[in-house]
Amino acid sequence: MKKQKRGQFLIGVTLLLIACGWITCRVMTAYSTPSEELAPEARVAAILESGGCISCHSANPELPFYANIPLAGDIVKTDIEEGYRAFDIEGLMAKLKDGGIPNPVDVAKIEKVSIDKRMPMAKYYLVHWGSQMTDKKAAMIAEWARDYRMAYYNDGLSGERAGEPVRPIIAKAETDPRKVALGFSLYHDTRLSVDNTVSCATCHGLNTGGVDNLQYSKGVENNMGGVNAPTTYNAVYNFVQFWDGRAKTLAEQAAGPPLNPVEMASTSFDEIIAKLAQDEKYVAEFNALYADGITEANITNAIEEFERTLITPNSQFDKWLLGDNEALTADELRGYDLFKANNCATCHVGANLGGESYELMGLRQHYFEVRGMELTEEDNGRFKQTQNERDRHRFKVPGLRNIELTWPYYHDGTRATMEEAVRDMAKYQCDAELNDAEVASIVAFLRTLTGEYQGKKLTSENENGL
Q1: Is 307 one of the catalytic residues?
Q2: 268-276 contacts: CB < 8 A, separation 24 or more?
């Protein structure tokens, strides 16, 4: 009986706090909007601070006094655990305060939750005076996000599309045509492998969407890899390379497969250099371009230079972004609206619609527990490199350009069609159940992302599917 009364008392105290907070919040809201005299970054920082974002979305949050009260404290600790699991805001807050350039994914996430008024949650703002998201605060964040994107991407978007989180591919990167030609040859040269059977193009064919359309790629002696091969098209836009981000540059990525025992299995670059040095054409080309001739650094530099040209502009969606209102059908536009409404454009942002961050696979529902396959080392994602438990099952977000050609999908290659991938992404990442019409519209939008390579629309020899 005493326990029951104690519980009722604690619940009463909690409800009293909420009631007091609600009354005061109503009074103080009008005074909680940052001054428009502040710089845009300072206004956004003030909104996020007053909204208590750092209280849940950081590694070491400062707990409120009621975190030690039974019932209320359990709720608080659960919210903190889930908040940090979903999003670490510390990097963004630091950039806002020191004048740095925020990550575009962080910008997209903050903008979306403010527009939706999903944060702070009612159970927070009812007991934290003035923290509630208002229309005026959301407008400040949206204006900051739009101006940020116009400056960050420098792609000429203006008017109503200037603030879109997805951006067009505009210009080719500046490259040395001679190094590009050399890199093209190396990309297709099987002598980078131990038995002269596998090249970069074996798993990343330019005529098959920059992939091989296999769940796992086959290396020398038909050795099977453990992760789905990502496309090399538009890889220049990725902030890191590989699903686990272990390569910072395209050159660093190019150095990996030749020595991977499952892929090309060469014992060293000295072995590769010895073979290439027997080719008089290669010797002449390397000597003309590099003072020290054929070296590991020069091989990977040439491949990188070539891969920087693997961009696919002029998709139907790019044309729409750049002002062609007839480029998309009503259904394709509806698909894009659904894409944004279901938070897809908070991770799949920018010119490549991805490749800008690491994200947790199974954010809202546990993916690996119901997948039906044993866990592998590759399933650990970024954790493989950092050994930080928070990074387990986090992966570099794949770009969505030319996605209709790059099946199967996900790091484990378990989804054969875009329809499957879209439906399950909504389920595991957003806890949303899309109906057939919604899935069809999003897929219609995704098909508009297929661009041109060397002036021709990209196609695949394997267009008919698996």
Answers
A1: no
A2: 269/295, 269/296, 269/299, 271/194, 272/191, 272/192, 272/296, 272/299, 273/299, 275/191, 275/196, 276/189, 276/191
